[in-house]
Write a structure and sequence with these properties.
Elements: E1 5-9, H1 13-24, E2 27-33, E3 38-44, E4 52-58, E5 72-76, H2 80-89, E6 96-100, E7 104-110, E8 116-122
């Protein structure tokens, strides 16, 4: 069995694509209409066999999109300090952290849809 993707329902597809592109370095691998009022974008690094982020904008979905505090998506970074500077330069508030353990450093922010996004540096 292979883990293929994580799906995130989004309020604004353009804003979400820009967020994951600018902060996580992902690019749109596939983007297509998926029916009336629905569009899907798969994002990744473009490497074979990678796990993707699937963004779904569904104008037919009623009610608020809530991901809760217990869901998150995580990205490895080479430098947590450099990522902190990037996040601060874009005026994105830190949701949790900076946490330092004996083997790692990480922090969380919220994406445009309220999903926790963790940036993680392995020491």
């Amino acid at each position: 069995m292979k883990f293929l993707w994580t799906t995130i329902y989004v309020k604004n597809l353009e804003e979400s694509v820009a967020f994951y592109s600018e902060l996580a370095g992902l690019r749109v691998i596939r983007r297509f209409p998926a029916g009336p009022g629905m569009e899907i974008a798969f994002m990744g690094n473009g490497t074979a066999g990678e796990t993707l982020v699937e963004l779904i904008k569904d104008e037919n979905q009623s009610g608020a999109i809530s991901h809760g505090d217990f869901l998150s998506i995580g990205f490895a970074v080479d430098s947590i300090d450099a990522m902190l500077e990037t996040v601060k330069s874009k005026n994105i508030p830190i949701h949790s952290g900076l946490v330092k353990t004996s083997g790692a450093k990480f922090f969380l922010i919220k994406d445009p849809n309220g999903l926790n996004v963790q940036f993680f540096e392995q020491k």
